[in-house]
Design brief:
Shape: globular
Distance between the termini: 86 Å
Order of helices and strands: HHEEEHEHEHEHHEHEHEEEE
Oligomer: single chain
Number of helices: 9
Strand content: 15-25%
Structural class: alpha/beta
Number of domains: 1
Helix content: 25-40%
Radius of gyration: 24 Å
CATH class: Alpha Beta
CATH topology: Rossmann fold
Strand order of the largest sheet: 1-2-4-3-5-6-7-8-10-11
CATH architecture: 3-Layer(aba) Sandwich
Number of strands: 12
Amino acid sequence: MKQGWFISLTLVALLVAGCRKQAGSDTPASVSPSVSASQQAETVNNDSLVQVTEQQDTVEVPSAKMGRAITNMVFVPEQYLKGGAERYPVLYLLHGADDNYMAWSNHVNLKQKATQHGIIIVCPDGQDSWYFDSPIDPKMQFETYVSKELVDYMDIHYRTIAKADKRAVTGLSMGGHGALWLAWRHPDVFKHCGSMSGGVDITKFPDRWNIDKRLGKYASAKGVWATHSVASLVPTLKAGQNIIIDCGDRDFFFEVNMALHQALEAKGIAHDFTIRAGQHSWQYWVESLDKHLKFFDQALSGKPVKCNTSIVTRDKAAKTPEVKKTETKKDAPKPEVKKPEKQQEPVPTVAPQPAEKDAA
């Protein structure tokens, strides 16, 4: 009798345990610490999603690496507000030096852009970090912040598609340097990247934009400056990323962008490259953003991306044939480029004209 009673209790216990296991099978109780937050967002029906009621929001995101919170603006498309399970690609849009997380939204209707392109747009406050991890200032660790901490936060709290091929990063001036730096050092996080008027070789500007506060004085830290310049990353690159770069023909970053283009060509790294009439100004960047968004539309959708080289200066117009992303233009003739007239070319050490913003 006792034996039968014991067997009955055992069967009931097993039945209850089985029901509990089945009920919780879709959402694990815990996730291994070795799994990144981005991976968690892919596999877990996360209860930490924020309730989004407006297209635009200002978000404070804690940085464990820096021991402080960083301010960001987030823009979601109108369709996001309807709720549901649909997830969206993300564009990380970086500002320049002497600016902040509000810079882009002060000049562009990012709510409209998010809706038009069906993406989430994130504008972090990069301060004057140049978006790398400073080796001398523990409070300026923005490579880790943007590529890891901010991306993980977005993937946990918003309905993102937490995959590298559904993320793009681009920016202007300092942000152009930062976007290429982040994507080229973290291709597993960002598959698509761009630069508008980017300060892509900081070694050419040793006395500007507080870079010495992040890396040390150039005279005594030339090696550190060189290894923290995006131009130094070209030898490490491999094919596979979608890259778009442009600069104005009267921009003080014109020559370093031309040099980067030539280095990428020599390495056989396909990229969309444009030089067109323009200065280091918001008028130029607002137009560039539309071109970058169109490029990312193709890239984020998974469609084949074609890369063009178009170099148009005040003196000469030269184009090379359109090529596919997978093709290498090793034998294509290099376009003839004449430098802008010396007396008309802006120099970084001279105050800019009113129409041009002398800031990276």
